[in-house]
Task: structure prediction
Amino acid sequence: MKAPRPVKTDPSPDLHDRITRRQFIQTSAVAAALGTAALACKQGHLTTTDELVFPKSAAAIGEEKIVRTTCALCPSGCGLEVRVVDGRAVL
Result:
């Protein structure tokens, strides 16, 4: 007759059940990103598509004109047409 197997009483998980260091870092990064996004949404720092297409400053009443200029981000100097309302560039 075989002896019954001993019941495992150790509360620690087996080695293969543990989370790896890489999994811990990945999970932590995802949790941090989700927390930051949720906090930004709650505080109103993220804009909606409507605000990007129809910004509040675009509804400004005043003198409006299109000014041709160049982009200064690189030496290429790409041409731009900027909408100016009351002396300020708006979308």
Q: What stands out?
A: Residues 21-43 form the longest helix (23 residues). Residues 18-47 form one domain.
